Amino acid sequence: MLDFLYQTLLAFDATLRIATPLMLCAMAGIFSERSGIVDISLEGKLLSGAFVAATVAALTGSAWLGLGCAILAGITMSLIHGFACITHKGDQVVSGVAINILASGLTIVLGIALFKRGGQTPSLPKEDRFTPIEWWGVEMMDSVPVLGSIYRQLISGHNMLVYVALLCVPLTAFILYKTRFGLRLRAVGEVPQAVDSAGISVTWLRYRALILGGALCGIAGAYLSIAQGGNFVKEMSAGKGYIALAAVIFGNWKPFTAFFACLMFGFLDAVTARLEGYELFLIGEIPSQLMQAIPYILTVLLLAGFIGKPRPPAVIGQPYHK
Amino acid sequence: MSKPTPPLPRWADIVLLPLINLLAALVLCGLVIFAIGENPFAALKVMINGAFVYQGALGYTLFYTTSFIFTGLAVAIAFHARLFNIGAEGQASLGGLGATLVAFAMAPIPGIIALPLAIGSAALFGAAWGIVPGYLQAKRGSHIVITTIMFNFIAAALLVWLLAGMMLEPGQFSPQSSLLPEQTWLPKIHEMLGWIGLKTTATPLNASFLIALCACLFFWVLVWRSRLGYEIRTVGQNQEAAHYSGINVARVIIITMAISGAFAGLMAINQIQGVSHKLILGFTAGYGFTGIAVALMGRNHPVGIFLAALLFGALVQGGTELDFEFTVITREMVLLIQGMIILFSGALAYMFNPPLARLLARIFGTKEDANA
């Protein structure tokens, strides 16, 4: 029983760690998509953020500088996206694909040129990273088998960026639903003409939405390479940007539901690693690949209207013509 | 909208503009190479030598070209119906699975039957993986971009599961199947030339190149000379108009995605039946995404697609040469060029258009206006 509790706790802990970049990227996706810009470039921004964070931290020895530059990198990618599909009214999906491929290419090319390690950045010493306090603490867990203290273990002892991600969710909801900027942002994704006729710039609003999203993706990238991990490895985003996009859709473009979708996807991932090789009662062994595909399958089912009813922003994907 | 721009002459639209976009992409990549301390012209020279000059280079280039023709056609046919198929990668994976499964099932059957059946099943499996997103778009209103992205990941998971599990070659650690029966292998071009007495360097270029050329012709006839092609283009131009003129829009969307998936699936025969002779995890190598660049650059026309596929084939083959010649520039440079090309000829397609049109109108004066 205790072992089960312990395993569950570890699974939840892992869930949080896995879900952190998803949450940040999902909030980025919400800002962008609610303003009417399709954002399949979350993946590319995440990857650029991860690369820049690790590179700057390795060169300067400062995790904070790494984080700051990762945010700038995310914003730069967002601005390219905005330049293509807001200013030049290009296809948002094409632009997103371009950014993802650019990010793959640039991170590897620059990584090899800078460090000559086949695309990896050097491992950072602990003091140059956002380190978790030893949250493993197995001995302590054994000595205090009380639920409360277990939860305290779960809640405390993560690195700073995990808490930033957790804070981002209510903050996103607040900005979207309680501020004038948020109201306009939502309006510009539904009826941009109305926003325009009120004398508010559609272009600038959408740019701001993208910039916010870029910053969040940059933080998520920094989490991957200088908080959760200790260096950049090529293609380290490994589809997380797409899972975050799936979470945005699965969460019906709302911050809290998207947050729960991130937790759910994170949990599936965390459980997958633990179920490998186990025979489940009546079901047998579940292939881990099936578990990994579940977020995608669920998203397809949701989009097709088989579970719930998706309600995307009305003008998503359409450039605004005055 | 605010400033009326003169229409771009047709020759400029199909020749000059793609070249300008390509140039912009290459210049930016050149700047990156320059920034990391290498000579961009030296890199270009190495790539051109690697792609065309060295012995057998052209064969390798055309081998990659073959894959890009298939994925380019796949993306392009969907573009004609204004559908964005990002799923060529997944459809190609399924195509590979189809070819492999049928090839194994055909073990005792002679090649004359087994070979075309394996090829056909590559197309069929690819088509099936395209039909589902098409159906969901047409009947359930789910956005095809998102669905095809998700289907790429589902296909990848499926392939990992099969290749690490029941299809794994015994004694093998990396996820790949055992060798296909030999009669399902596609002949290499140098072997075929050997049959008529010509001696050429052995390269991976195989008969699927010829199939790709036929696919280009088929594409042209389908889109511009058939009733279905007319319907596809009409749906792409204006779904409502298509509906009112009696076209079954949902049916056209589903069929278009089936054809698109089939083209993508055929990419697998080049890689699997042509060269590796087994299903290897990740054999699609991102070529499904390259197909997007190829279709955009090739303006969704088979001639353009062939030329763009040739360009990318040369880039990939030339890119491998970079690994040998330089320490800091590697084949991943090609990814960068590819991203730039998608950015310039796709997302920023309208950037150079108006200034170019104005410039040409000024140079050629009223003559072009009269033609337009």
How is this structure best described in words?
- The complex is a heterodimer of chains A (322) and B (372).
- Chain A is mainly alpha-helical and 322 residues long.
- Chain A has one domain (2-123, 135-303): ABC transporter involved in vitamin B12 uptake, BtuC (Orthogonal Bundle), CATH 1.10.3470.
- Chain A contains 13 helices and no strands.
- Chain A has helices at residues 2-34, 42-60, 63-87, 92-115, 138-143, 147-155, 160-178, 180-190, 192-197, 202-228, 240-250, 255-275, 288-303.
- The termini of chain A are far apart.
- Chain B is mainly alpha-helical and 372 residues long.
- Chain B has a domain at 70-301.
- Chain B has 16 helices and no strands.
- In chain B, α4 (88-105) crosses α11.
- The radius of gyration of chain B is 22 Å and the shape is globular.
- The model of chain B is unreliable at 368-372 (pLDDT under 50).
- Chains A and B meet through α3, α4, α11 and α13 of A and α6, α12 and α14 of B.
Task: Please write out the topology.
The complex is a heterodimer of chains A (322) and B (372).
Chain A: H1 2-34, H2 42-60, H3 63-87, H4 92-115, H5 138-143, H6 147-155, H7 160-178, H8 180-190, H9 192-197, H10 202-228, H11 240-250, H12 255-275, H13 288-303
Chain B: H1 10-35, H2 40-53, H3 57-80, H4 88-105, H5 111-140, H6 144-164, H7 189-195, H8 208-225, H9 227-237, H10 239-244, H11 249-276, H12 287-297, H13 302-325, H14 333-347, H15 353-364, H16 366-371
Helix pairs in contact in B: 1-14, 2-3, 2-13, 3-8, 3-11, 3-12, 3-13, 4-5, 4-6, 4-11, 4-12, 5-6, 5-11, 8-9, 8-13, 9-11, 12-13, 12-14
